[in-house]
Amino acid sequence: MKQSKLIFRVLPVLLALCFFIGASVPHMVLSVNGAEYDSNYESLSNEEKQAYLEQQLKEVNKKLDDLAAQSKDTEEYITALDEKIRYMDNQLKLSEEEMATSKNKITTLERQYSDNEKNIASLKTEIDALSKESKVLKEKFDVSYEMYGQRARAMYISGDMTILEALLTSKDISTLMTRIEMIRRVSQQDKLLLETIKTEGEELESTQKTLNDKKDSLINNQNALDATKNILNKTIKDLEKQQLAFTDKQKDYESERSEADNLLIKLQEDTKNYSEFRHQDEADLAEINREIEAAAEKYLQQMEEQNKTTTTTTTTTTTTTKKHTTTDADGETEKKPSTTKPTTTKKTTTSTSSNRLSLTYPVPSQTRITTAYGSAGYVGHTGVDFACSSGSNVVAAESGVVIISKDITSHSNGRCSCSYTGGGYHSYGRYIVIMHDKKNLAGQYVYTLYAHNSSRLVSEGQRVSKGQRIAKSGSTGNSSGPHCHFEVRTPTASYSDCVNPTNYLP
């Protein structure tokens, strides 16, 4: 009995300890393009990332096979397929990086090859010049050396008279001095000849050494040229293989994406809860985001000035002056009437509007959100959707100025030929962005976006009031069916500042 009580006392402590240990060492994951990855993913090499993605694809394919055995027409299957597509998309990005690396390498190698060719041509020119110079120096040296040889032979044959011999054999002082001068001059000439031979010999040796060095450098450059050419050819072949592999992956990616889109349309046809296709291209989003940010910056100063209102008030002051009654010489009295003098004072006051933002539903006929914000709707959903029949009125959620009213008809990234072009449009399709003149409780500006409209009824720079009709709903761009995609962004108009619209709607 005591043992049982002890167990009941110790067990909670052990469980708490296990919980503490588990909580202190969490399994870290990160999201890459909507898919979860281990926390060390970014530190991996491209080869390791490819291996990791292959493993994830293997697992998700197994999951898809299991789900397909039951039915493909389920949200769960589409979600798993979306996960696979995100992994494939990241594979394509890695392949693009590899191809970019190969292209950069080819550019570098081609530059090296060209530099080597120029160096070789320059070295050949230098070697040719040095060879000619060496030949001339050799000829000069040979002439000087021959002269010295002849002089040495002559001295040997005739015998070289020393000063002592000149002294002993001279008949007089004049003869002695003449002989001494001759000996001195001959000795000086011999010395100059030796110096010439030495100088020319050193110059010839230096030139020949430079020539040999240039020849060695030429051989090295030719070897480097051959090596660069081999690496260049191999890299070009590798790039061709990478491009072929990329093309195959791209076809598979587009095929899977097309299947996911068709399944989504089929699934949403039953409920009429249309939304967006779930694989918006990041390059497109970045380009659109830059346009919206630029428009917001353009109108920000205008909005700041507008929020300062100038009012003029006029007050009238009446002054009454009473005159005393006077009697003239005839006994008549004169009364001067009272006078009223108006005084006008102009008073200018500057005040900031205290009105706060209060959004209304963008589609009055549909106040039920059919696709929620964020992962509650689907991964990467930055707004809420209101499924409604095409042509339904879309209204301004609050007063403000239209900073964007345009049609997106082009695709910034030519990578995907199956880009969503609902009604001939892309991405948000025919869309509108409003910068509201009332701030939220935090004193920040709020921007709303209305996408996939069939027609736009307002233009950029136009002021709109709350509830004013601005568009007709539709299914243009990245849309699976007629609906209004509604976004709220604050404190800036940036895509990264999208917030849950339900925090602002009634």
Strand content: 15-25%
Q: Structural class of the helices, strands and pairings?
A: alpha+beta
Mean pLDDT over the residues: 77
Shape: elongated
Q: How large is the radius of gyration?
A: 48 Å
Order of helices and strands: HEEHHHHHEEEEEEEEEEEEEEEE
Uncertain residue ranges = 1-8, 15-36, 310-353, 412-421
The biggest beta sheet is recorded as:
7 strands, antiparallel
Molecular structure report:
With 506 residues, the protein is of the alpha+beta class. It has two domains: 29-159 and 201-269, no CATH class; 282-304 and 359-412 and 419-503, Glucose Permease (Domain IIA) (Distorted Sandwich), CATH 2.70.70.10. 52% of the residues lie in helices and 16% in strands. The protein has helices spanning 2-24, 46-70, 75-158, 163-169, 173-271, 282-306; strands at residues 29-32, 35-38, 308-317, 320-321, 326-327, 333-334, 339-340, 343-352, 384-387, 393-395, 400-407, 430-436, 447-453, 455-456, 463-464, 469-472, 483-489, 498-499. The strands form six sheets. Strands 9, 11, 12, 13, 15, 17 and 18 form a seven-stranded antiparallel β-sheet that branches. A three-stranded antiparallel β-sheet has the order 10-16-14, with no helix packed on it. A two-stranded antiparallel ribbon has the order 1-2. Strand 17 and strand 18 form a beta hairpin. The longest helix has 99 residues, at 173-271. The relative contact order is 0.09.
Please give a quick description of this structure.
With 506 residues, the protein is α+β, with helices and mostly antiparallel strands. The protein is built from six helices and 18 strands.
